[in-house]
């Protein structure tokens, strides 16, 4: 079992930067690929970024590429999402998710591939 807790979401101005954290507990976290997703009311959960269990592979959605960066610190059991140049359309609840991975390089992109989820953290961008 892996428990995930997101933090770092807040009210920010467009153009600012923000770093979200996903703190994990559970002995198998280092064996997990981790993803970030976001969701706004009335819309489907959207994939944002994923990182492999070893951290050697990452994938970012086209909509955020160049502005968002996913990283992980396995010693701290934490995955981060650095968000730069925030836009109004980045407003959403951001979730991290994890799945046990047999591959050091897999970066799952579908929410259906993940087994463990955090409660989410709200990011609100204003102009």
Question: How is the secondary structure organized here?
Answer:
Elements: E1 3-7, E2 11-13, E3 18-25, E4 32-39, E5 46-51, E6 58-60, E7 68-73, E8 78-83, E9 92-100, E10 116-117, E11 121-126
Parallel strand pairs: 2-11
Antiparallel strand pairs: 1-3, 3-8, 4-5, 4-9, 5-6, 7-8, 9-10, 9-11
Summarize the structure.
The chain has 127 residues and is mainly beta. It has strands spanning 3-7, 11-13, 18-25, 32-39, 46-51, 58-60, 68-73, 78-83, 92-100, 116-117, 121-126.
Alpha plus pi helix count = 0
| Alpha carbon gyration radius | 13 Å
- The low-confidence parts are none
- State mean pLDDT (0 to 100 scale): 96
Instruction: Determine the strand fraction and express it as a percent band.
Output: over 45%
State the shape: globular
Q: Helical residue percent?
A: under 10%
Features:
single chain, 127 residues, mainly beta, seven-stranded mixed beta sheet, four-stranded antiparallel beta sheet, 11 strands, globular
Tell me about this structure:
The protein is mainly beta and 127 residues long. It is 0% helix and 49% strand. It is built from no helices and 11 strands. The strands form 2 sheets. Strands 2, 4, 5, 6, 9, 10 and 11 form a 7-stranded mixed β-sheet that branches. It has a 4-stranded antiparallel β-sheet with strand order 1-3-8-7, with no helix packed on it. The protein is globular, with a radius of gyration of 13 Å. The chain starts with a strand and ends with a strand.
